[in-house]
Design goal:
Number of helices: 8
Number of strands: 7
Number of domains: 2
Radius of gyration: 18 Å
Mean pLDDT: 96
CATH topology of the largest domain: Rossmann fold
Order of helices and strands: EHEHEHEHEHEHHHE
Strand order of the largest sheet: 3-2-1-4-5-6-7
CATH superfamily of the largest domain: NAD(P)-binding Rossmann-like Domain
CATH architecture of the largest domain: 3-Layer(aba) Sandwich
Strand content: 5-15%
CATH class of the largest domain: Alpha Beta
């Protein structure tokens, strides 16, 4: 076990019952971290997921169903991590939702929900885990932003605003912890084939009367020069690097993994 870089550490990954969050949780578990999952889904499937991860990686896996729009529930989840594991050493703020409409047609409640989940929740989790990280003089906070934290797309004002805000939070938090053993960084994925993006593909296929495969290619052709999706496993490997000693002077970065999207 000694060669695993995160043995004895605990990782909380928000929005980790599927997609990117689950990919990152798996990668951290593979390095020996105990994992606290969070997210929505069928309770039996989540129980099975916990059991599978624990068995596959030989770590402890727990789950908390905190609604990331509710500060009191976020606090309850951090307290639960304290009771169960002694606290959080690696925080991955991944929970996110999306809605597409022009600003003048954007539903106010959708704006509020996106800002709450994609941005404000990261403020709450960070403020609550930092005291213990400071006491231990070790911690890793990784915020899952997006290429939309760096550039914009029409129709995604709330998401773009939240992800730009998340990069601002990352930088400020990195400066506040700069002289400590805590690092704070952001990962900015391009298109990843998550359930969220699959829905965009399905909608496009239906709208344009094309196959799912053609819709995927069209979606990527718009933005992602590599023509390939980023995978949750690739993002997980980057998260593991950011947790390692090799990355201890990587502070306040917005690291895009996007098939060349932002290079254009």
């Amino acid at each position: 076990m000694a060669n695993k870089t995160l043995s004895g550490k605990t990782a909380l990954v928000t929005g980790s019952t599927s997609g990117i969050g689950l990919g990152i949780a798996r990668s951290l578990a593979a390095e020996g971290a105990n994992v606290l999952l969070n997210g929505f889904g069928d309770s039996q499937q989540i129980e099975q997921l916990q059991a599978d991860l624990a068995k596959e990686f030989g770590v402890q896996v727990a789950y908390h169903n905190a609604d990331m729009t509710k500060p009191a529930e976020i606090e309850a989840m951090i307290n639960f991590a304290g009771d169960k594991f002694g606290g959080v050493d690696v925080l991955v703020n991944n929970a996110g939702i999306q809605y597409v409409a022009n600003v003048d047609e954007f539903p106010v409640e959708k704006w509020d929900a996106i800002i709450a989940i994609n941005l404000t929740s990261a403020f709450h989790t960070s403020r609550l885990v930092l005291p213990r990280m400071r006491k231990n003089n070790w911690g890793r906070i990784i915020n899952l932003a997006s290429t939309h934290g760096l550039v914009a797309s029409a129709g995604k004002s709330a998401y773009v605003a939240a992800k730009h805000g998340l990069l601002g939070l990352t930088k400020a938090n990195a400066l506040e912890t700069a002289t400590t053993g805590i690092t704070v960084n952001a990962i900015c994925p391009g298109f990843v084939l998550t359930p969220l993006v699959q829905k965009q593909v399905d909608d496009r296929a239906a709208k344009d009367g094309i196959s799912n495969e053609q819709a995927k290619k069209a979606l990527l052709a718009d933005k992602q020069p590599s023509g390939e999706f980023v995978t949750p496993e690739e993002l997980g490997a980057l998260a593991v690097f950011l947790c390692s000693d090799a990355a201890k002077q990587v502070r306040g970065v917005a690291w895009n993994m996007d098939g060349g999207w932002v290079a254009q």
